[in-house]
C-alpha cells in the first residue's frame, strides 16, 4: 500500500483496533444507527402541535427509542445498542405509526446513518 508516512487508512485502522477501543469509539460491531424524520403537519394540527406531542413521545418510548429536535424535524435512535436490522425494523414501525396519525400530512424518514460519525445534513 502506497500511503504517506503516518497515514493509516480507516478500514485498516478498524481491523487492527482492539475491541475495547472499537467499543469506545463506536466502530465496527459497536456502531450505532439512527435516522432523521421530517413531518408536514396538516394546517389545523400545526396550530395544535401539542396534540401530537404526547402520543409521539409515548410511541418513541414504547419502541425504546430516543429523539432530539423539534416536533417537525428530529433525529431518532435506539436507547440501547441493537443491530442494524433491528434498527431498520423500529424505523419502519415508527414510520408506519406516523403515517397513520390524522395530524400528519406527510412523514419522511431518511436512510439509516451512523449516529456518531454521520453523514449529517447541513
Automatic annotation (TrEMBL):
<protein>
    <submittedName>
        <fullName>DUF469 family protein</fullName>
    </submittedName>
</protein>
<dbReference type="InterPro" id="IPR007416">
    <property type="entry name" value="YggL_50S_bp"/>
</dbReference>
<dbReference type="Pfam" id="PF04320">
    <property type="entry name" value="YggL_50S_bp"/>
</dbReference>
